[in-house]
Amino acid sequence: MVQMHTCALLAVWEEGMDCVREMVMDFGGIGLVLQVLQDHSESVGAAECAFRALFPLSRCAAAAATIRHEGGIRLILKVMRRHMEDGACATIHEVGCGILCNLSCNESARTEFTDLGGIEVVGSVLEMFSAHVGIQQRGCTLFSNVALEENGRAQVGGTMGVVRTIIEALIQHQTEAAVVQPSCKAIYLLSLKKSNTETLTSAGAVQAILEAMVQHNTHPTIQVYGFGALCGLARSQDRARKVADSGGIARALAAVQHFVDPNVRAHGLGLLRILAVNPVNEGEIVRGNGRQIVLEAMLAHPEDARVQDQGLGAFANLSCKDNHDIPFAGMSSIALVLDTMRAHPDDVEIQEHGCQALTNLAFNDENTEAIVDLGGYDVLQTIVECHAHHQQVMHHAGVAYGKLPQRVEKPE
C-alpha cells in the first residue's frame, strides 16, 4: 500500500515539473516504480499508479532510456497481458500504450517491443477496447512508430488481425481526428512495403482512408498521410482503378485545387501522377480539368521542388493518351515545364519528369514547335551536361530530344 501511494504521489509531482523528474531519476525512483510493477502486477491499483508515474517520465529522453535499460518494456507488456481480459482496466491499457509510444521514439526500443510480442499485445488491446478513443489513439500511434523501419512494417503488416484493427479504428472513430491521424499514418507507413499492400487493400484500407479524408477535408496532416497511403496502395493497375473508383481522383483534384499548403498539394499531385498511369484514370482526370489544376498548383509554388516534381510527373502522365490525339498544351503550359526544369537543374526527378512531359507533348506538332521556340534544345543540352552520369535522366533526355526536329546532334 505504501508503494502504491508513493507511485501515485510521484505521478502527481512529476506532471509538468522537470525538476521533480530529475530528482526522481537521481534518487532511483524509476527503479522503485518498476519494482512495484514486478511485485504487484496483479493489482489494478498498483499497476495504474505505477503506470501514471512512468508516463510523464517516459517523455524525457534520459528517463526513457533508464526505463528501457531496467526492463520497463517487458514489465509494461507483462502487466498489460495480465489485465487483458478485465474490461475495467482501460486506464492501465491507455497509459501503458502511452508509455510505450514515448519509449518507441527510440529505434532499439521499437525492436525490443516487437521482439517481446508487443505487436500482438497492443493489437489485442485495441480489439478489446475498440470504443475507447484514448486507447485507439495511442495504440495506432505506437504502431505508426513501429512501422518507421522496414522490419517493423513487415511484422505489423504481416499480422492480419492487427492490420484489420488499425483500419477498424479508422472506421469506427472517423470523426475523431486524434484517432484518424495516427491510423492514417500507420497505414501510410505500412503501405511503403509492397507485400503489405494487398493485405491493406483486402482489409478495406482504400475506402476507409478516403472516407476519413472527406470527413477531415480541411485537416492538412490527415490529407498528407491519406494521400501517402493511397499512393502506396495504388501501385498496381487494378488497385489504381480501385482507388479511382472509390473517389481518389475527386479527392486529389479537390485538395490540389483548394489547399494552399504545398505539402498537401505535393502529395495530391503524387496520387494524380500514379493514378494517371492507368489510361481510364487519365481520361477521368483530364475530364475533371486535371491538367489545368496541376499547372495552377505548380505556378503557385515555383520554389517548392516536391510540388514541381510531382506536378511535372502528373502533367507528363496526363499528356500520354497512348501517343494519339495529344492536344496543343498552350505556350504557357510548355513554358512552365521548361521554366521548372531551368529553375531546378540539379533535381534529378524534376529533370526526369520534365523530359517525360516534353516527350509526350511532342507527339503534337504544335507542341513540338512551341518547345523549340521556347528554348527546349538548350534545356535538354543543360541536362546532358549536368547529369551525364545519371542513366535514367540521360535516357529520358535522349528520348525527348529524339522527338524534336534534329537541329543539332542528339545527346548520347
UniProtKB/TrEMBL annotation:
Per-repeat ranges for ARM: 204-248, 332-376
SUPFAM superfamilies referenced in this protein's UniProt entry, alphabetically: ARM repeat
PROSITE patterns linked: ARM_REPEAT (PS50176)
Coiled-coil positions: none
InterPro entries to which the protein is assigned, alphabetical: ARM-like (IPR011989), ARM-type_fold (IPR016024), Armadillo (IPR000225)
Keywords tagged on the record: Repeat
Matching PANTHER family: ARMADILLO REPEAT-CONTAINING PROTEIN 6
Protein name stated in the entry: Uncharacterized protein
